[in-house]
Amino acid sequence: MNVFLTGATGFVGLALLNRFVADGCAVTALVRNASVELPDGVKQVVGDLGDLSGLQIAGQACNDTLLADLSGCDVVVHAAARAHIMRDEVNDPLAEYRKVNCDATLALARLAAQAGVRRFVFVSSIGVNGKQNTRPFTENDVPDPHDAYSLSKYEAEQGLLQIAKEIDMEVVIIRPPLVYGANAPGNFGSLVKWVRKGVPLPLGAVHNQRSLVALENLVDFIALCADSARSPKAANEVFLIADGVDVSTSDLLRKVAKACGVKSRLLPVPVGVMSFAAGLLGKRAVADRLFGNLQVDSSKAQNLLGWKPVVTMDEQLEKIAKEYNS
After folding, report:
1. Which residues have a Cβ under 8 Å from the Cβ of 208 and sit 6 or more positions away?
2. Which of 43, 62, 121, 189 could form a disulfide with 184 if both were Cys (CB 3.0 to 4.6 A apart)?
């Protein structure tokens, strides 16, 4: 299988790159920095997704080059994105998110279709469904994107599904919740470091329920969807993907501590007090992720494609601990 991969140096993209190489795929990787070292045999294409925000902006020379790189590829796996930026300094964050996550995505999809690519796999976000729930999200829920990032992802999804109706190219959309693994960015990576250092955390009274997806599980599912021969029923479908076992924030941190061989130090501070303090500090979004419920029903992936998680949460956490210890 010939794969064109974007975001190959990111947290998820790098794991995908290594998986495709291990599976014997021929990989072409789009990267922004020419000095990045990639595994032997991987073809490197240097470019910025932002330059693809409009075919007329990218220029014909850029288009011709990408068309040549896309020709002969069976699938595009689009994992690159402008992700959450805590201190965004641009004047119009939504416009910037749309430029990269929506406009560039659709431009790349049109070029892929023109080059004869059979399938386009888009890594979206559970944020398209919403930020909290009282019952597990499913693919049939009415989308409720809550910020500029998730809105740009939703708009990209809609554009891709429309392209699939107009052009002979299959689209697969995957919405993962929080992805955890060794060296994960964001809140999870910070929490693991604090737990390993024995820092007391005021999260012992958090009894929410959240779905997560282990990096290995997400990569395995994406690899399945990238192979149209193995997953013909994935064509033009949307999938929510998770480990299948939900945990509270406090239980997750206790599991992390156990995997790292340290004692968990969780203080039972009332959630209401912490939520109030977070609001005063302008950290409402962080509080929502730590205290709120966000559950995902991934039964469609299992029933339609026969997919099952390849690692449990405890197994993934043990691998994370070993990675940190080494």
Report:
1. 248, 249, 291, 292, 293
2. 189
Closest CA to 171 of 156, 190, 186: 156
Which among 97, 149, 154, 180 is annotated as catalytic? 149
Question: Is residue 198, in this structure, part of any structural domain at all?
Answer: no
**Is 278 part of any domain?**
no
CA distance 52 to 56: 9
- Amino acid 27 reads V
Q: Is residue 123 part of a domain?
A: yes
**Domain encompassing residue 108:** 2-180+212-242+296-309
Q: Report the CATH number at residue 216.
A: 3.40.50.720
Interacting residues of 276 by C-beta distance below 8 A, sequence separation 6+? none
**How far are the Cα atoms of 11, 189, 253, 293 from residue 247, in angstroms, in the given order?**
23, 17, 10, 10
Q: What is the pLDDT of residues 39-90, one digit of tens each?
A: 889 999 888 877 775 544 444 445 677 888 999 999 999 999 988 665 566 7
Q: Establish whether 149 is a catalytic residue.
A: yes
Q: Are 259 and 317 in contact (CB under 8 A)?
A: yes
The total of structural domains in the chain comes to 1
- Give the separation between CA 151 and CA 228, rounded to whole angstroms: 28
Q: Are 191 and 253 in contact (CB under 8 A)?
A: yes
pLDDT per position as a tens digit, 240-274: 999 999 999 999 999 999 999 999 899 999 999 99
Q: Are 239 and 202 in contact (CB under 8 A)?
A: no
CA–CA distance, 189 with 183 (Å, rounded to integer): 6
In contact, 123 and 79? CB cutoff 8 Å: yes
Residue given tokens 């929410």 in the structure block = 208
Asked if residue 323 belongs to a domain, the reply is no
Q: What is the residue whose two structure tokens read 């300094």?
A: 89
